[in-house]
Amino acid sequence: MKVYVSATLRNFIGRNPFVEIAGESIRKVLNNLTDEYPEAGKILFDEKEKLRSFIRIYVGEEYFPEDKWDEKLAPDTEILLLPTIAGGAPAESIISDERRKAVLLDDSEVERFGRHLLLKDIGVKGQKRIKAARVVVVGVGALGSPVIQYLAAAGVGTIKIIDFDDVSLENLQSQVIHTSRDVKRPKVASAKDKVKNINRNINLEAENVKLDADNIVSEIDGYDLVIDCTDNYKARYLISDACVLCNIPLIFGAIYQFEGQIGIFNMNGGPCYRCQFPEPPEAGLVPTCAEGGAISPLPGIIGSIQANEALKLIIGIGEHLDGKLLIIDSLYLHSKILPVKKNCNCPICGANATITRVEDYDYEDFCGLKVKEEEVPIEGFSPDELAKRIERGDRLTLVDVREPHERAILRFPNAIVIPIGQLARRKNELDPEIDTIFICKEGKRSILAINTLREAGYIGPMYNLKGGIDAMKDIIFSHEGAWL
Amino acid sequence: MTLRKQFYSRNKITLGKEAYKKLKEATINVYPDEACGILIGDEGRSYIMEIWPMGNKTEGNPHRFFRADPLELYYLELRAEKEGKQILGFYHSHPDTPAEISLEDEKYMLPGVIHMILSVNHGMVGKIEGYQKEGPEDKRTEIEVELEEKTP
Fold this sequence. Notes:
A: alpha/beta; eight-stranded mixed β-sheet; elongated; B: Cytidine Deaminase, domain 2
């Protein structure tokens, strides 16, 4: 068969572009070629007799990978031996060489991080960069748990953790940094103890505050990297905007039920969170994990990938999720990477940015969390008021708008069941002459339900159960003398 | 148009005036993506007289990676053969990063030819470095890249 040898490989094989080699398949031709030209064998194959990464074999215009090497070919077939010309720019660390050089590793650190030092791509230089790094983790919940613990275990020198919440029993299902003994303690205090147990030498800065437009810049300015482990849109936009303004890369992670997302934003002027998500979904439409739920190990998967991306950026290795969004479905084990394009008209990172200070921007309004003045305010009952009216025997229609599987956890007696999606269609089942009270888990979706019915033209009196069925749990009715 | 063994002893290559101008255009045109192409020259004089750009067909992020289509190279080789021109090696750009050879570059580094790397910072051509290695298992060495327009 006729074999074309690329000019760039020819000094190992002979001077002619074409050589005539006998054989009926690629494998046989290659065997005969290397017998005839032992030098050729050395350039085509490595010592394990695997084709080298820079060689490609074509038959005509078709690429022939190894699994096609045994196909029988016509004797007049032309085989092309071509090189792959490929490469990439060196990944740059977000930690400068000066800062890396200013760091020393002591004997115990050499022992502790031995498994990192063994890796060619990390080594002593990489470990020093990890030690020099200053990382902010916002949110010490489900995602924050793995992120903080892995960063601490990997030896990140300075970790700032920010959360305003206390540990509650329901957090323990997924927030593995906290334990039963930590319930009712501030989350940052519990996490600080855990990190101290991992490595006392880590400088852990615990901030028990709620981030808002007035304090975020001072909290993150001067750090190398911010990792968003929050669970709500207002925090995500606030963090992303502040990162753009402070020029800090952001590792975003989010989970919902069985699905998670990870992305890197604002890396070297790359796309930001707003470029991908210009607007949040309508308030109340997408529940947070507290309302929508999430399977226990999911934040472990997503948070671990966030921590892994953080270390790669710090060390300056590999390919990362800059300008990409990784989506993982843990239920059916699908994953995909979507490209994220920079939006030239982005109000914060575009050419004509309109947001120049987070303090001047109304995040509550942007995320639809404010009661708009032109809207008719929604009236509601507190659990006590509702309980009184039920006790009094008032004529009421109670509508439970939760999904069927949520009702299985806790049922509301005498409530009719209409999931949110069916409300507009089934509005005739409601009597506009009597008061109708809408019930959900936390009292948020019920507001959405009332607005939906208003838009559908329902005119009867509607009320919201404030705090939802969660707030109603502690009410005891005289006739039952038991928990609701 | 063959590559002789003596080639390896070379430690300096001159980048011709016209070739340098074309190289700057070719790399800036595709910035922020990585550019790649062929170096055509006179081996005896260690002189690069032309550059022939190739498309970046990487499946990864083109700002960070490049990959040339082997078939495109094949047709350019046939053209070089016809025109009696010599392929001395390849160039590619590193957008916003130094002209240092990366791990990825070394993985695909073809023995026996020049690999020229240009740093393109924010759309401006910066440093140019040259690399080569003799055999597949040999260590790479640096080649000095001299610009013709700067030589006296």
